[in-house]
Amino acid sequence: MFFDLSPLEIVVLLGLAVVLFGPDKLPQAAASAARFLRQVRAFGENARADLRNELGPEFDGLDLQDLNPKTFVRKNLLGEGEQLRELRDDLNRDLRTFSSAEDVPAARREPSALATGERPPYDADAT
After folding, report:
1. What is the model's pTM?
2. Nearest 5°: CA angle at 102, between 98 and 105?
3. Phi-psi domain of 56 (left: phi exceeds 0; alpha: psi -120 through 50; beta: other)
């Protein structure tokens, strides 16, 4: 909900604010808190605008949210990136067409059972 606070926690915080500030100073405290939050938000917007101006026109499409590590991982490693999505689709298409047993290389085929008394193959280069 609001900063991961339950409704009961919000009510307790409001009651605590009334006890701490009193009913007469509570509106002034709320107004100053709102003013502080507006100033912090304006500071962030100004910093973002300054960064966009300093980077220049070649970074117009840059979304600062994409630089967040969680967003970057979700988009690029978990398949939401355009190039990775195309690569994943190509690999899936190749795997679907590669499904027949004749196309599977000998190294990837399931080993066949050996007849009784038959010796397993020996590869001198592998040992």
Report:
1. 0.43
2. 75
3. left
